[in-house]
Specification:
- The protein has 372 residues and is α/β, with parallel strands linked by helices.
- It is built from 13 helices and 8 strands.
- The chain has 3 domains: 84 residues, 3-Layer(aba) Sandwich (Rossmann fold), CATH 3.40.50; 64 residues, no CATH class; 190 residues, 3-Layer(aba) Sandwich (Rossmann fold).
- The strands form 2 sheets. Strands 4-5-3-6-7-8 form a 6-stranded mixed sheet, with helices on both faces.
- Helix 3 links the parallel strand 1 and strand 2.
- The longest helix is centred in the middle third of the chain and has 35 residues.
- The protein starts with a helix and ends in a 5-residue tail after the last helix.
- It binds guanosine-5'-diphosphate.
- The site of guanosine-5'-diphosphate has 21 residues, from helix 8.
């Protein structure tokens, strides 16, 4: 039963991703398999079912919650005769839409080409079919090879370009001197930008969509006469495509080089525990998991979903929990300093600010031991 809940949550997230990318979801299909089919990911019966549904209802795209192998993608597309997107492709598409600066665009473009390269044949067979209709010869192997080479060249060009920018950014970071640097980290859509705005009184783009922030924003924040730098970073997500982790290296460097991490959690989200795990997983991948951290549980004002059981404080059942009650939950017993807030209503801000101040001060003192 718990698996069933989890499955629905994953599908909710995928639907939210699809919505963020600009699609409306018509229907969900799920299937339990001990392991994915190597040829078509799902079983042939299920594939048939989806194919019929797609035909009947004139559906334009089928989205899968996992990354499909190039051959799975090709086989599914052939079998269902509809455009297939996998999770990676969907996330890359959102990133592409969101990339506004040339730096972010370069990062996304690199990730997209890396995704595309092993899937090139698929694209060509697809074109071949279309071209065949109007009597044109489909591209042969040599043309695919030429195309691969062009893409490879483009990839190394983009990598060089990123390297240059990375160097510039590293210099910029060094020039920031010995001011303490804190980075907001967290799952996508948890309220990092909102918190950033509230703390720095700046206007960072906040929106109820995934990945509103692709570029890092750095702001100077002063709490009780103590100045420090605060960075807002790209949101993390379950199964973040590896291509993106790689090409967003420099964005993630902000996290890697921060002195203090402020881990923001959306406590109103049913899967917030999974989100914490995903974030910790990525922190581990980029080797930033041993830094001082503050846990900020956000959105304590928002309990929009139903309470099933009176005295159960599980994520899906809480409602109108008081601050005191929060402080008695397991979340408050983490090894890190923990605080419960609402970035929207600014509830409990003084306590959070005091906590950040204390942690920043600790780092500041370790750096300037002889100053008062
Ligand atoms: P980010 O992706 O982590 O930067 O998240 P954003 O700051 O863009 O916020 C995502 C959504 O959550 C926006 O619609 C915010 O208005 C909303 N939000 C942020 N903080 C709170 C909060 O404390 N309470 C409620 N109810 N909503 C919040």
């Amino acid at each position: 039963h718990q698996d069933e809940d989890k499955l629905q949550e994953y599908m909710d997230e995928l639907e939210f991703l699809a919505y963020t990318a600009g699609a409306t979801v018509d229907r969900r299909f799920t299937q339990k398999l001990t392991q994915p089919d190597s040829k078509t990911f799902i079983g042939s019966g299920k594939a048939q079912e989806i194919r019929d549904y797609v035909k009947e209802n004139e559906i334009g795209t089928v989205i899968f919650d996992d990354e499909l192998s190039p051959s799975q993608l090709k086989n599914l597309e052939r079998e269902m005769e509809v455009k297939i997107l996998d999770r990676t492709n969907l996330i890359l598409d959102i990133f592409a839409q969101r990339a506004t600066t040339s730096y972010a665009r370069t990062q996304v473009e690199l990730a997209q080409y890396q995704y595309l390269l092993p899937r090139l044949t698929r694209m060509w067979t697809h074109l071949e079919r279309q071209k065949g209709g109007i009597g044109m010869r489909g591209p042969g192997e040599t043309e695919i090879e030429t195309d691969r080479r062009i893409i490879r060249d483009r990839i190394s060009l983009l990598k060089d370009k990123l390297k240059t920018i990375d160097k510039q950014m590293a210099t910029q970071r060094n020039n920031r001197g010995k001011v303490v640097r804190a980075a907001l980290v967290g799952y996508t859509n948890v309220g990092k930008s909102t918190l950033m705005n509230a703390l720095s009184k700046s206007e960072v783009f906040a929106e109820n969509k995934l990945f509103a922030t692709l570029d890092t924003t750095v702001r100077k924040v002063v709490i009780g006469n103590l100045p420090f730098l605060l960075t807002d970073t790209v949101g993390f997500i379950r199964k973040l495509p590896t291509q993106l982790v790689e090409s967003f290296k420099s964005t993630l460097d902000e996290v890697r080089e921060a002195d203090l991490l402020i881990h923001v959690v959306d406590i109103s989200h049913e899967s917030f525990e999974d989100h914490i795990d995903s974030v910790n997983q990525i922190l581990m991948e980029i080797n930033a998991h041993q830094k001082p951290m503050i846990m900020v549980f956000n959105k304590i004002d928002d309990f929009s979903y139903e309470k099933k059981d009176e005295d159960d404080l599980t994520p899906s059942t809480r409602k109108n929990v008081s601050l005191e009650e929060w402080k008695n939950t397991w979340m408050a017993k983490s090894k890190y300093p923990t605080v419960f807030i609402s970035a929207l209503t600014k509830e409990n801000f003084p306590e959070m600010k005091k906590m950040i101040y204390d942690e920043v001060m600790k780092i500041h003192i370790s750096r300037f031991p002889y100053n008062d």
